[in-house]
Design brief:
The complex is a heterodimer. By secondary structure, chain A is mainly alpha-helical. Chain A is built from 15 helices and no strands. In chain A, α4 crosses α8, α4 runs antiparallel to α13 and α13 packs antiparallel against α14. Chain A is globular and about 75 Å long. The N and C termini of chain A lie far apart (75 Å). In chain B, β1 and β2 form a beta hairpin. In chain B, α4 runs antiparallel to α5, α6 crosses α16 and α16 runs antiparallel to α17. Classes of the chains: A mainly alpha, B mainly alpha. Chains A and B meet through α1, α4, α5, α6 and α11 of A and α2, α6, α7, α8 and α11 of B.
């Protein structure tokens, strides 16, 4: 009897020990998880830390490699903004992006609606052709488009479009991805709504603007977000079509500063921070939709 | 319009139908016209026009029709090109034999595998033979830029996928601050690539006081030239003296690869996280009951069930590296010479700096065909290996 009870007790204490060990290893692996996650976050953030820190240093501090400026030099930003002309580039970028987005939204809402809800001849064929353009690398489009914009292929109204707003904005005013996204959404809208609208004498345009658009905020936001990123971050094309400062956007301005500024790293980094601010503001405001938009569409901006 | 037609008795059913159909057609065309015109002009027309330009000696102004001369200049030796393509075909055959081996009966597997291995070796030899002929007679700069592109793709894609998967798996556990971590990892991807590439240029500059060199000095390692170093990494780190392709990527390209991984791993993390959400919890519980620890569960449940997502990401990322331009252009320092010039940068250079339009057009057509081929091949080869369970 006695043997039996002690045996049981032993077993129970053993079990407790096992549980303790298990719990111990779990917290152990948990702290390891956190350690790895924190190292990852550190590595992801260090270039940003470096950029901001350098942007607040004096020229001497950037050369004698300090980690942090003794006194933050906010004047660097004023200098970059005024003397390095980042103000001009910034407003150029704002206008280019704004105009592009208005165009992009107009063309893709109309086309998305037509592909999703209007039956016209050749609809599927045209849509398939548009989708196939998503496979085409941008590299191949630069040279012919550059010649097009210079007016060498066909004469353009107003001669060459080099250094003009339309050259920077028009090519980005439509893309297959936005049309696809909106088409998917519009196609889901119940047919009964359209029947009812027709009885009220509405045509497609009225149905689109008064019924469809008010309920399409989510896909429109996604189109705007991707359009914004694409336009704000554009580099190769603006580099090709801007030979002067008139319409030079931020990214090209930053790049020309790299080749012209030489050792003025603090101003360069201040300029770099300026290029980031609008994107970061939008990212933090629309964080969830932003990330979900990418996860569900799987598309790079 | 339509409702008045309905009540008008004079219009027959057929007429109503055709009137409506006409109206629908016209509205449809009017609605899609702006988008279609822009996409056709700026998206599709360039391919046709590039093809046209590539057949001329075209330097700023159109010159003589030269037929395939531009392409001959790229490949140099059409015989070598044919040999190379033949080798590529054999590679496909080796792959086909390899997959067939597992379907055949057990005693045949070994033999089939051995045959596949032999075909693979033969294919490799033939391809390098053809490539050697092409390099000797063709455009070394452009052919070399293709190799650089492949170095870049092979260097970044597997690592950024692997790191992304690990972080996604860790974030999927019950931990605090999940949202914050995800936001931080995604930050490098969200920020404009030109900006971050400019920042990397200063961090990995050849100056002794650059951040990368300060970190090295903590470990008593000498300063490196990073983005400004044309020497191969095998030479810088291991002291090996190898020539050409065998030497592998330069340190400058290695640094750009590092940037690629830093910039894109967060994107993969987010997509993998979405994929993890689709794995049933019961599978992990079952694995735990069977006594699997964290690593075993990761290896035997997570990785196979994520393979459709991995396949998708691999495809997108690999093709993405062939399309990539902005950060590669910004980080290609003149000091690193041609060891960092990828195909897209090379093409840009040929028409933008050298004004050799016709030739650049033919190069961009070749790059386009490669990307097209990759898309088709990846769909075919990797699609079969995906776990759909």
């Amino acid at each position: 009897m006695a043997d039996l009870t002690t045996g049981l007790e032993v077993k129970q204490t053993e079990r407790k020990d096992i549980r303790k060990v298990a719990r111990g290893s779990r917290t152990g692996s948990q702290s390891l998880t956190y350690l790895v996650l924190i190292i990852g976050a550190f590595l992801a953030l260090i270039p940003f830390f470096w950029m901001i820190s350098t942007s607040l240093m004096t020229l001497g501090e950037t050369i004698n490699r300090k980690w942090l400026p003794a006194v933050p030099q906010f004047i660097n930003y004023i200098q970059a903004w005024n003397e390095a002309k980042f103000a001009r580039y910034f407003w150029n970028s704002v206008i280019i992006t704004g105009v592009t987005l208005i165009g992009l939204l107009t063309t893709s809402i109309l086309a998305g609606y037509a592909f999703g809800r209007i039956k016209f001849k050749g609809r599927n064929a045209i849509f398939a052709i548009l989708l196939s353009t998503m496979m085409i690398p941008e590299t191949i489009t630069w040279l012919p488009n550059l010649m097009l914009v210079r007016g060498t292929i066909i004469p353009l109204p107003g001669g060459s479009w080099l250094n003009s707003l339309q050259a920077l904005a028009v090519p980005f005013m439509a893309n297959a991805f936005s049309i696809f996204l909106l088409k998917q959404f519009f196609a889901q809208i119940p047919h009964e709504l359209w029947d009812a609208a027709q009885i009220d004498g509405a045509n497609h345009f009225r149905f689109l603007t008064q019924i469809c658009l008010p309920i399409s905020k989510a896909p429109i936001m996604t189109v705007l977000l991707f359009g914004f990123i694409g336009s704000w971050n554009a580099f190769a094309w603006p580099l090709l079509v801007t030979t002067r400062e008139t319409w030079r956007p931020l990214m090209v301005g930053l790049w020309t500063f790299v080749s012209e500024a030489g050792p003025e790293t603090h101003l360069l980094m201040a300029g770099a921070v300026i290029t980031l601010i609008p994107i970061l503001v939008i990212y933090f405001l629309t964080q969830k939709q932003f990330t979900q938009g990418i996860a569900t569409t799987g598309l790079k901006g | 319009m339509a409702s008045t037609a309905d009540v008008n008795p004079k219009i027959t059913k057929r007429n109503v139908f055709s009137l409506r159909a006409l109206q629908e057609n016209l509205t449809g065309y009017a609605f899609v016209a702006p988008a279609v015109i822009i996409i056709l002009v700026f998206g599709l027309f360039p391919i046709v026009y590039s093809l046209y330009m590539s057949l001329f000696n075209w330097r700023i102004r159109k010159g003589d029709f030269t037929g395939l001369v531009n392409y001959t200049k790229i490949f140099g030796d059409w015989g070598g090109f044919a040999i190379f393509i033949g080798g590529l075909g054999l590679l496909g055959l080796a792959y086909w034999l390899w997959t067939r081996a597992f379907k055949s009966s057990s005693n045949l597997i070994r033999i089939m595998q051995i045959i596949a291995a032999i075909v693979l070796i033969v294919a490799g030899t033939i391809m390098s033979m053809g490539w050697g002929k092409m390099i000797a007679a063709g455009d070394e700069d452009f052919l070399n830029s293709l190799i650089i592109t492949i170095f870049y793709a092979v260097g970044t894609v597997p690592l950024q996928l692997g790191i992304g998967m690990v972080f996604a798996y860790l974030l999927y556990q019950k931990i605090h601050g999940k949202e914050v971590f995800r936001m931080i990892y995604f930050l490098p991807y969200v920020t404009p690539v030109v900006t971050t590439a400019v920042v990397f240029r200063t961090i990995f500059s050849s100056r002794e006081t650059s951040l990368a060199n300060i970190l090295l000095s903590w470990f008593n390692a000498g300063p490196l030239k990073w983005l400004f170093e044309p020497k191969a990494m095998s030479e810088v780190f291991l002291g090996l003296k190898l020539d050409g392709i065998a030497a592998g990527p330069s340190l400058a390209l290695g640094t750009i690869i590092l940037f690629g991984i830093w910039s894109f791993f967060g994107y993969n993390t987010v997509i993998f996280l979405a994929g993890l959400g689709g794995i049933p919890k019961e599978l992990y519980e079952a694995a735990e009951i069977d006594g699997a620890n964290g690593w075993n569960a990761f290896k035997n449940v997570t990785i196979p069930l994520l393979s459709p997502v991995s396949f998708y990401l691999f495809l997108v990322s690999f093709i993405g590296t062939f399309k990539a331009f902005n950060h590669l252009y910004v980080m290609a320092t003149p000091n690193a010479q041609n060891t960092v010039v990828t195909a897209s940068v090379q093409i840009f250079d040929v028409f933008y700096a050298q004004n050799n339009f016709g030739y650049a057009a033919s190069q961009s057509i070749v790059l386009f065909l490669i990307i097209l081929g990759l898309t088709l091949a990846q769909n075919k080869f990797l699609g079969e290996r995906v776990f759909y369970g």
